[in-house]
Amino acid sequence: MKKRILALTLTFALAASVLAGCGGDDKKEETKAPETQAAGGDETQAAGGDETKAETEAAAPEGGESKGVIKLGGLAPLTGQYAEYGKGFDIGFHKAIDEINAAGGVNGYTFEIDIKDTQSEPVTTSTMATAFAEDDEIMALLGDFSSGACKATAQICDSYGILQLSPTASASDYAAMSKYFFGIMGRQDVEAPFLAKYVLKEYLKAQKIAVIRVDSDWGKSCYDNFIAQAEKEQLDVTVETYATGEKDFSSLITKMQAENPDVLVVMDQGDPVADIFNQADAAGWKIQHVALGPGTSEQVVGRLNDKDNLIVTSPFFFDPDDAELTAWAEWFQGEAGFAPTIHPACAYDCVYLLAEAVKSIDGEVTRENLRDALANLPEYTGVTGSIKFEEDGDIKRNYMICGIEGGEWKVLEGFEFGAAGF
After folding, report:
1. Is the peptide bond before 144 cis (omega within 30 degrees of 0)?
2. pTM across the whole model
3. Rounded CA separation 304/57 (Å)
4. 293 and 346: one domain?
5. What is the pLDDT of residue 416?
6. What 8-state DSSP symbol labels residue 416?
7. What is the distance between the alpha carbons of residues 124 and 118, in angstroms, rounded to a whole number?
8. CA dist 249 → 288, 289, 325 (Å)
9. H helix runs in 43-153, sequence order
10. What is the per-residue pLDDT across 185-208, written as a single tens digit (0 to 9) for each?
11. Do 228 and 324 lie in a common domain?
């Protein structure tokens, strides 16, 4: 099963397929066939399920005896302003686990996960992570959503020797904080410079930029990487910050409008993105809207008053011309009630990455050998594309420019850029 994902490579020519020609395609055909949602909620197993089961049984010990259950601790914002993403985590984690277990498990093991609601708040996340780490049966942590929440567990993971694999942490210093930290979203030291050079300067031809960003660890990482590139591009940037949970942005909008910028950039995820742009519209400010963070979120679009005035960066897009990606997206929407972004797909890929790591372990799975097996995985092709951990436990992704046309997300075409050099 090949997945053609519409993507802009680091040479920034809009690619016809990110996954074509990847060395992991055959493996993916055997292990990651998505399910589709039938009317009434029944699921049918997609083609490839027989191969998945056959591969798993071949990897199991002779006689097929069970070695037990690998228990995972899930950290996700199931409530609060990032609940869309936490719900996506929940669905993505369980979808992958259900598929793996239905196929007979991996190497004699099945999987289960206990997901705790952290609201992606660092103190809560560290408390939940400690509780998981103190349970010897928990082999790994999956989550959390925000970089700040993920980074709050560094000492915990080091002390208890338990790996943490985040679907979405993107701060450039996250994975390097601990040998037990891993992430697959990609990093802000690539995405934020891409925004400055290719979205703002090359695509939009903007010169004066207004930035409103959340005052969080993630927001700081985004802005620091952005402004370093913006200075190289000789962009004139004005920035204002706001606290997490803030609702009234009128004073920030008034300050920014007075600067008469060409573009308004918001660096955040979830409700604040729509709130800021809606309040700017209400103030009569007609300006191009750009966001770094939410990806192609249907939740954000659903709350926007001017749905066609938004451009975002994204490392992934559910290409409507790809039948298998479309089937995955339709299945997810049937479960969640909204269309997926990259976030639940990354959650899904995280479970399969752990399954691949378990498959490579000869003998009993421990926290330490699971960590080592994950770190040493060869290149793997998941729903979200090619994944290969760098030495620090993180990956780099390619980025594209997406916009809304007629109320639907599209990859913006008709342009090519030179090599990024990030």
Report:
1. yes
2. 0.81
3. 49
4. no
5. 58
6. B
7. 5
8. 17, 15, 37
9. 49-59, 83-102, 122-133, 147-151
10. 999 999 999 999 999 999 999 999
11. no
For position 247, which CATH number holds? 3.40.50.2300
- Under-70 pLDDT residues of the chain: 1-64, 414-422
Structural domain including 172 reads: 23-186+319-389
pLDDT of residue 45: 35
Task: Classify burial at 223, counting beta carbons within 10 Å of its beta carbon; exposed 0-12, middle 13-18, buried 19 or more.
Answer: buried
Let me know if residue 8 belongs to a domain. Answer: no
Beta pairing class for 385-387 and 380-382: antiparallel
d(CA 122, CA 116): 13
Question: What single string gives the DSSP state of each residue in 9-39?
Answer: -TT-BEES-SSTT-TTHHHHHHH-PPPEEPG
Query: At a CB cut-off of 8 Å and minimum separation 6, what does 50 contact?
Result: none
Residue pair 209/309 in contact by the 8 Å Cβ criterion: no
Residue 365 CA to residue 377 CA, distance in Å, equals: 15
Task: Give Cα 210 to chain centroid, integer Å.
Answer: 26
Question: What's 81's DSSP letter?
Answer: T
Q: In the prediction, which pLDDT does 81 show?
A: 86
> Does the residue 305 lie in any domain?
yes
